[in-house]
UniProtKB/TrEMBL annotation:
GO CC terms in record: cytosol
Keywords: Hydrolase, Multifunctional enzyme, Purine biosynthesis, Transferase
Keyword set includes ATP-binding: no
Domain MGS-like span(s) in chain numbering: 18-165
Record-given protein name: Bifunctional purine biosynthesis protein PurH
Matching SUPFAM superfamilies: Cytidine deaminase-like, Methylglyoxal synthase-like
A molecular-function term among this protein's GO annotations: phosphoribosylaminoimidazolecarboxamide formyltransferase activity
Pathway: Purine metabolism; IMP biosynthesis via de novo pathway; 5-formamido-1-(5-phospho-D-ribosyl)imidazole-4-carboxamide from 5-amino-1-(5-phospho-D-ribosyl)imidazole-4-carboxamide (10-formyl THF route): step 1/1; Purine metabolism; IMP biosynthesis via de novo pathway; IMP from 5-formamido-1-(5-phospho-D-ribosyl)imidazole-4-carboxamide: step 1/1
Catalysed reactions, semicolon-separated: (6R)-10-formyltetrahydrofolate + 5-amino-1-(5-phospho-beta-D-ribosyl)imidazole-4-carboxamide = 5-formamido-1-(5-phospho-D-ribosyl)imidazole-4-carboxamide + (6S)-5,6,7,8-tetrahydrofolate; IMP + H2O = 5-formamido-1-(5-phospho-D-ribosyl)imidazole-4-carboxamide
Length: 548
């Protein structure tokens, strides 16, 4: 039995004149079964006939609900391992028929097609399949065909049909049924928009995956077209500035960070909070937690202090010492579980956000004493070697590039000076180059004892970044009561080559004894000569880390 037909034409016209559409029959076919049984039970209690497929039908039947199989509508069994089950006029005719069109109604009567007034479909978990690293064939098999077709058909015919693509919309449909006896046009339009957004995002994920597969096989090829999509995670109060609107969307390959984080406490995150927290957490992920605890402090998307230490609290104090003025109101990212000792130190100054893979109960209780301080736990660290794409909007278009996943530990460092760096200098050089990757260009980073001691960011000339970083180091030394800045005996990293020797000379004057840079300038010989004249060591990485 597959349920009753619609009410007579007069009753139907009465409903339609008020933009209310009754539901006599619902087709349910879902991968995510969250809330499915209670929703279906509520529909059945209102006399709505249920039709379903495969695993969804099994779940409903096991819950004691009367549910027809989609084959009762089509006259065909599921076939080809479930690839073909709903692609049939018996389904799509019931969805797409315009209810007050006499010709459509005549076609339905002639071919025995029953109207479907509610389509509840969510799609095969393609994105999750890709995220868990499944093989090519498994990913292809998780590309849904019939689901998107039904969703798009129902959304197109939203004048008569409601479509639900997410369990979060179940309550909306039931509220309409309780209050109006059917779905309102406003609800159906909203659901249609959500439906098309979902299929667009889904198709975008598939297209992006194919592009990534192709790029691995042909690195010189650029995809002929790109699709970007996301699901609304949160509407934000405003954007970078109060006069700008903003929202946070989740989409693309799964990657631990702000999109996976649980907020344990604190105020709602702002646009700038999210942007800075992402920058901080990506930066701290450069530091392997198995090697040492590490802390990154970020302000306006730039690191203002980074350090490794024997403990998290030691790393935090070393990072803070780099630029305590800028750290006020900043973001603190940690590469290990936040512990109580580190938590006590962090709450000593005003901090906007703390983000870490996890937090101990004692640490969370300490943070809770600062009710506005946001504490995020992500469940893991992003892989600095991981792939992915970065997108920047331009007037009338987009720039798309692969993620900067070059890691200094994988680079063949070339000593280009007469003096080679010492083992201690090499450790600090690698540390500094990890940091400079995450500083806005032109970027200069001074480091000593696995901690930044001066950071120059975002200047139009490299020599100015070197000067600013040294100036900040002098200010920090004065504030700490030190006799001289920590740039004395430090190393320096540059995100790109020195176009002239002046930037290097500034670093030497600040006290740097070793330098790491990509090399590649037409004046490399002049820069190397300046290093040799000062008796400092310099290594080339061959890899540039511009960041804009």
């Amino acid at each position: 039995m597959i349920g009753r037909r619609h009410p007579g034409s007069n009753a139907l016209a009465a409903f339609m004149s008020a933009d209310i559409r009754p539901i006599a029959r619902a087709l349910l076919s879902v991968s995510d079964k969250t809330g499915l049984v209670p929703f279906a039970r509520a529909l059945a209690a209102k006399g709505i006939a249920l039709v379903s497929t495969g695993g969804t039908r099994k779940a409903l039947a096991e819950a004691g609900l009367e549910v027809a199989d989609v084959s009762d509508l089509t006259g065909f069994p599921e076939m080809m391992d479930g690839r073909v089950k709903t692609l049939h006029p018996g389904v799509h005719g019931g969805i797409l028929a315009i209810r007050d069109d006499e010709g459509h109604r005549a076609s339905m009567d002639e071919h025995g097609i029953l109207p479907i007034d509610l389509v509840v479909v969510n799609l095969y978990p393609f994105e999750a399949t890709v995220a868990r690293g499944a093989g090519y064939d498994d990913c292809v098999e998780n590309i849904d065909i019939g689901g998107p077709a039904m969703i798009r058909a129902a959304a197109k015919n939203h004048a008569d049909v409601a479509v639900v693509v997410d369990p979060s919309s179940y309550a909306t449909v039931l509220a309409d049924l309780d209050a109006k006896g059917g779905t309102t046009l406003a609800t159906r339009r909203t659901l249609a928009q959500l439906a098309y957004a979902r299929t667009a995002t889904y198709d975008g994920a598939i297209a992006a995956w194919f592009a990534e597969v192709e790029a691995k096989e042909n690195t010189a090829a650029a995809a002929q077209s790109q699709v970007f999509g996301g699901r609304l995670a949160e509407a934000l109060r405003y954007g970078e500035n109060p006069h700008q609107s903003a929202a946070f969307y989740i989409g693309g390959p799964a990657r631990p960070g702000v999109a996976t984080a649980r907020q344990l406490q604190g105020k709602a995150l702002s646009y700038n909070n999210l942007n800075d927290t992402d920058a901080a957490f990506e930066a701290v992920a450069e530091f392997d937690p198995a090697r040492a605890p590490a802390v990154v402090i970020v302000k306006h998307a730039n690191p203002c202090g980074v350090a490794e230490g024997e403990t998290l609290v030691e790393a935090y104090r070393k990072a803070l010492a780099c630029d305590p003025t800028s750290a006020f109101g900043g973001i603190v990212a940690l590469n290990r579980t936040l512990d109580a000792e580190a938590a006590r130190a962090i709450v000593d100054i005003f901090t906007e956000v703390i983000v870490a893979p996890d937090a101990s109960e004692e640490a969370a209780a300490i943070i809770a004493t600062k009710k506005n301080l946001r504490l995020l736990v992500t469940g893991g660290l992003p892989d600095p070697r991981g792939g992915g794409r970065l997108v920047k909007s331009l007037a009338g278009g987009y720039l798309v590039q692969s993620r900067d996943n070059a890691v200094v530990g994988d680079m063949a460092l070339k000593v280009v000076t007469q003096r080679a760096p010492t083992e201690k200098e090499l450790a600090d050089l690698a540390f500094a180059f990890r940091v400079v990757k995450h500083v806005k260009s032109n970027a200069i980073v001074y480091a000593r004892d696995l901690a930044t001691v001066g950071i120059g960011a975002g200047q139009m000339s490299r020599v100015d970044s070197a000067r600013i970083a040294a100036h900040k180091a002098r200010d920090a030394a004065e504030a700490a009561g030190n006799a001289e800045p920590l740039t004395r005996g430090s190393v320096v990293a540059s995100d790109a080559f020195f176009p002239f020797a002046d930037g290097l000379i500034t670093a030497i004057e600040a006290g740097a004894t070793a330098v790491i840079q990509p090399g590649g300038s037409i004046r490399d010989a002049d820069v190397i000569a300046a290093a040799d004249a000062a008796g400092i060591a310099m290594v080339f990485t061959g890899v540039r880390h511009f960041r804009h």
